[in-house]
């Protein structure tokens, strides 16, 4: 499953549900008879009418749900949490033309996002900023043009702004890179802290950088892993780009080890992995599917053969950031069948969820 979302506003699935709803209603109608058979009593007719009314009502409800689905869409926008991390949050927005432009408008302080912000989060773009337009070039570059108010941000927010814009726009199919304009003019550097942007930005540039413990950056490679953060009783996933010392052929193992080891103690983030969990064999990749085989410590404190949903999500989100990985299959040495926390058997590889952090706080 792709980690991006189609720019097409009307989903084929939604359209199909509408057609099916229509078929259900029309298919249930019968041609009225002028002279009904004598053995049909009024009581039977009343029951038939009740049934037909129920079918009509159900069909009407289906139409309403389909219409509601058409009128709304769920889109990831990247906001700043209380710890200063740039974090994806899935919001329900009106289904309008120009979903890329709309998603950027939900990044503006005091704008459309104001009534939807989860507790502890804030918008990333300065108040009164206007999105003048977005344009997708043939090479996969999305150009985003902002009004001059875009430059009214604090120095410490510059990288956060770049990351939020880049990761929000690259969720859409066909968008590989992002370039910024201010009032119609291309920019070589950002207006406050002069971060270079002339070449454009992509997810490969990273997010929420953690270079702790790195001595020689030339001997490392960047990888984005997903840790957990807590906000009251709720948890959410935070992408963090780390420099990992690893051979190119063993990046998958290195990412798993980073998740098990967990974030630095000062990060404010946590991991749900048992510290003794480890792979018992090298990950196997074929046709977009990555297979991981763990020891039994992957179960943590759960009974039987259950794997924590947060462990599953962290693995799938982190590994599908790697080029070509579409799904992850989890196995445990000596166990035939695994289940998630709800008891559902994990007989198929797990694909990346369409949206991240969908629960409201």
From TrEMBL:
It holds the Pfam family Germane. The keyword Metal-binding does not apply. Keywords: Signal. Residues 1-26 form the signal peptide. SMART domains: Germane (SM00909). Residues 100-191, 252-341 form the GerMN domain. This is Sporulation protein. It comes from Priestia veravalensis.
